[in-house]
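Annotated sample (chain length 102).
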Amino acid sequence: MRVSDISKRLDVTSPTVTQMINSLIESGHVTRTTDSKDRRMTEIQLTEKGDQIAKKAMDRYYSLFAGMIDHLGKEQSQQLASLLDQVYQYLNSAKDKEEEEE
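Output written by the structure step:
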């Protein structure tokens, strides 16, 4: 994935993504390697330290999500999922309209 792809996905500028990656490299969470065939291409990869933190974050996310479902119950969880899907669809269509107008 290119920096520009990440910046689009996160809806931030490419320089912001580059700064974020540099910070993650300095803290030992990721490594950056250059493609030997195309020096313009770089690969960003989690280190063991970064992988441990990512796994911990995902475990925490799943735990919180499961707790929320237990708290709401099946019916309200389904309603919430439906409403969030509608919000997501609306926001995507609004963003697409804005991009068309630019």
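Annotation: The chain has a mean pLDDT of 92.
Annotation: Helices lie at 3-10, 14-26, 48-101.
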